[in-house]
Specification:
Structural class: alpha+beta
Strand content: 25-35%
Order of helices and strands: HEEHHHE
Largest sheet: 3 strands, antiparallel
Radius of gyration: 24 Å
Number of helices: 4
Shape: elongated
Strand order of the largest sheet: 1-2-3
Number of strands: 3
Helix content: 40-55%
Distance between the termini: 90 Å
Length: 141
């Protein structure tokens, strides 16, 4: 008798589990909505003289509706845009030759990356690491 009741309830239990499985799939699609750029050497130029290079790693966070695989395939274009911007107008800090001006870099990359992707694709840009190629003396006051 108990076995019959369990067999009759089995379809209802499977229907109740379906919405939970659907919400898990939806959560999985939002995981990994970013593009990591390979490290890029950014020049530190003072008065026309190359002082140092900073190796920068950048993560571009995408919106939930963005096609991640499409934009990861375009990673060389984003990296090229960053290199061009860094050599055109170096992201140099006046008080430290071992770091870059992060707000200036993120604003510049946001402009150029949005031109590549179009609107409403990139949510934010984060500099994940900065490693100087060598120790540079602090600027004199």
């Amino acid at each position: 008798m108990l076995r019959r009741r369990l067999i009759c309830l089995l379809p209802f239990v499977s229907l109740a589990a379906a919405p939970a499985a659907a919400s898990d799939k939806k959560a999985e699609t939002n995981v990994g909505q970013y593009v990591d750029l390979q490290p890029v050497a950014m020049p530190i130029v003072i008065d026309g003289q190359l002082v140092n290079y900073i190796f920068v790693s950048v993560r571009m966070n995408l919106t939930a509706s963005a096609d991640t695989s499409r934009w990861r395939a375009r990673e060389p274009y984003f990296r090229d845009a960053l290199v061009r911007a860094g050599h055109q107008t170096p992201f140099t800090l006046a008080n430290d030759y071992e770091k870059i001006d992060v707000p200036k870099l993120t604003a510049s990359l946001m402009r150029t990356a949005s031109a590549i992707t179009g609107p409403n694709v990139i949510r934010s840009i984060v500099v994940t690491s900065q490693v100087p190629s060598r120790r540079a003396r602090a600027p004199r006051s």
